[in-house]
Amino acid sequence: QVQLVEAGGGLVQAGGSLRLSCAASGSTSRLNAIGWARQAPGKQREFVAAINSGGNTNYADSVKGRFAISRDNAKKTVYLQMSRLRPEDTAVYYCRGVATVGHDYWGQGTQVTVSS
Questions:
Q1: For 48-66, how does the pLDDT look when each residue is reduced to its tens digit (9 = 90+)?
Q2: Would the N or C end of the chain have less CB density within 10 A of its end CB?
Q3: Burial of 101 (0-12, 13-18, 19+ CB in 10 A)
């Protein structure tokens, strides 16, 4: 099993920044990528960003140039640095562990609220 624990959400004004973290534990060798997804009220969960074991990154168009994903292998932690936040970035942000085989893993989520 893999456990993912997010931290760093909160309330921020538009234009501000936040950094989310996702700490992985357990059988992390099962994962070939870790990423972030978000879900706003009344909307479907959507992809935000991901980083794979080779360090390659991928971003949703809506966050390119504003968000940056990185990883600290020694700490088994993935970060999402969010800058120039907008009210439409308001959502619950979930860490997702993409498994090489079998099902993916999800964290419990952390709320990000951007006020206008």
A1: 999 999 999 999 999 999 9
A2: N
A3: exposed
Contact 68, 19 (CB under 8 A): no
Query: Residues 9-22: what's their mean pLDDT?
Result: 98
Q: How does strand 77-82 pair with strand 91-99?
A: unpaired
Q: How far apart are CA 84 and CA 24, in angstroms?
A: 27
Burial 26-59, CB ≥16 within 10 A → b, else e: eeeebbebbbbbbeeeeeeeeebbbbeeeeebeb
Cα gap 14→27, rounded to integer Å: 38
Average pLDDT, the chain: 96
User: What is the pLDDT at residue 47?
Assistant: 98
Spatial distance between the Cα atoms of 25 and 60, rounded to a whole number of angstroms: 26
